[in-house]
Amino acid sequence: MSPVLLTSNHSSCYTQVGNEFIDHFMTDANDVQIKVYLYLLRHLPVEGCFEISAMADLFNYPEKDILRALFYWDKKGVLSLTLDEKDNITQVLLKDFKAQAQPSAKAPVPIVKTVTYLPSKKDFTKPDYSLDQVAEFSTRETTSEILFIAESYLGKTLSANDIRSLLFISDHLRFSVDMIDHLLQYCIDRGKKDFRYIEKVAINWAENNISTPSQAEDFSSKYNKEVYTVMNALGKNNLPTAKETEFIKRWYQIYGFTSDVVLEACQRTVLATDRHRFEYADKILTSWKNAGVHHKPDIDKIDADFTAAQRKPVSSSPSKNKFNQFQQNNYDFDSLEKELLSN
User: Fold this and answer.
1) Tens digit of pLDDT for each residue in 3-41?
2) How far from each other are the two terminal CA atoms of the chain, in whole angstroms?
3) 195 and 92 co-located in one domain
C-alpha cells in the first residue's frame, strides 16, 4: 500500500490532545481508535507521509483494524479522509475542533470526501460466500483471534457455515474484533449460541449505527428493557420479529404506556390465549388508549366501572362497545379468537 499524506489545519510544537476530543470523543472509542488518533497527533506539526502498514506493525494490529479506526474518526468528524478512484486513502486531514466550530475566512475548514463507516441499510443481506472466500478469511491474521474468541465462547470447533457468519459480520457489517467479542458475549450471556441469532443481533446493531461496545451496551440496555420484558411476559423466547418489534414500539413510543400498563395487558393476554398473543395484547392496549388510560390505576377504574355496569339490569339493546371485552373479568375469548383468526 502506498504512503498516505498527513496534513492538518492547526499547528503545535508538541503533541497536544484537545479537551474537546477527551470530553466528547475518547469515551466511546476503543483502544485501536484512540491509538491511531494519538499516533497521527504525534507525527504533527511536521506534515508528511506515513504508511498504514508501519502503524499496524508498531501497534501489532492488522491493517484492516487501522483502516476501520480511520473510517471511524472520519465519521465522527475528528478527521477527514481523501480517497482515490479505487477508494484507497490518499490523505488524512486532522481537524482543529476550535476552527471547526468557528471557521474563519482566512483559514476555512477544507471540504473533503467523507467515508461512511458502516454499510447502508440495503447492504445488510448476507452474501453467498464460497469455500475459497471462507478459506481466505481463515488465513488472515485477525481471523485467528476471532476464531479463537468464538470457539472459546461457543465451546466447539466452528463449521464452515459458522465461519461464513463471522466473515459476514467482520467484512460486510465491518465489526472490529472488539465488537465481535462483545457481540458473542452478549448472545452467550442470553443462552443463544445459534449463529442465525448472532447474525440477527449484529444486523440490528449495524442498522442502528452501533460501532463500539459502549454504544452496544447503551443500546441493548434500552432495547432489553422494553422489548425483552414484553417477550418474556408473553412467553416468547425467540428474537422478536420485525412485526413484534413494531407492536412494542407502538405501545411504548406511540401510545406512551408505561411498563406496568403494558405488562398488565400481557398478563391478561397469556391467561386468555396461546395464539396470536401480540395481536391480542395490541387490541387490549389500543382499547385502553382509546379509553384514555395513562396509568395502571386507570385500568382498575375501568374494570370497576364495567363490573358495576354488569350488575345493572340488562338493556334490551346490548352495547356494541368492543372495548368491554377487554375490561371485564370474564372475557369473551372465543369471540376474540375468531376475530383474530379471520384477519
Assistant:
1) 777 665 655 556 778 888 888 888 888 888 999 998 888
2) 60
3) no
